[in-house]
Amino acid sequence: MISYVRGQVAQVTASAAVVDVGGIGLELFCSPATLAHLRPGELATVSARMIVREDSLTLYGFSDEDERDVFDVLQTVSGVGPRLGLAILAVLNPDQIRHAVATEDLVALTKVPGVG
Predict the structure, then answer these.
(1) What is the pLDDT of residue 116?
(2) Is the entire prediction scored with pTM above 0.85?
(3) Tens of pLDDT along 62-73?
(4) Can you say how many angstroms the Cα of residue 85 is from the centroid of all Cα atoms in its chain?
(5) Could you tell me where the DSSP H helices lie in the chain?
(6) Count of helix runs (H) and strand runs (E) in the chain
(7) What is the DSSP letter of 59?
(8) For residue range 80-113, what is the model confidence (pLDDT) as tens digits?
(9) Kindly report the CA angle at 23 between 20 and 27, in degrees rounded to 5?
(10) Which whole number is the average pLDDT over 9-24?
(11) Spatial CA neighbour of 46 closest among 32, 58, 35, 57
């Protein structure tokens, strides 16, 4: 399992960052909050999670371990895959997610596109 990626940020797009690790550009799909901290040309350490599917190996990047841990827990919820988990983190930070779940705040959770 890949826990983090450290290297020079080669590119940042609207949904992903490419980090050069030993001459290999690793693409990590990230939340907007994570992408906001990454600058091309700068060194960065990004917490990561690799999701293995029968047709793909996809890396997801996070600003810290807490965000990654919440993403991991979201993956255990029926109907929540990696893309929806990342969408939830794009709208709510980890503390807001924990609070919404603890208080059963459906209004907060349904702010996320794809959550009904």
Answers:
(1) 66
(2) yes
(3) 999 999 999 999
(4) 8
(5) 32-35, 65-74, 82-91, 94-102, 106-109
(6) 5, 5
(7) E
(8) 889 999 999 999 999 999 998 899 888 888 888 7
(9) 40
(10) 96
(11) 35
Q: Map tokens 């709510």 to a residue.
A: 92
Q: Which two tokens stand for residue 3?
A: 């826990």
User: Phi and psi for 2 in degrees, rounded to 5?
Assistant: -95, 120
Phi, psi torsion values for 69, nearest 5 degrees:
-65, -40
Question: Rounded to whole angstroms, how far apart are CA atoms 27 and 42?
Answer: 16
Start-to-end CA distance of the chain, whole Å, equals 32
Tokens 């109907």 found at: 79
In sequence order, the 6+-apart residues with CB closer than 8 A to the CB of 77 are none
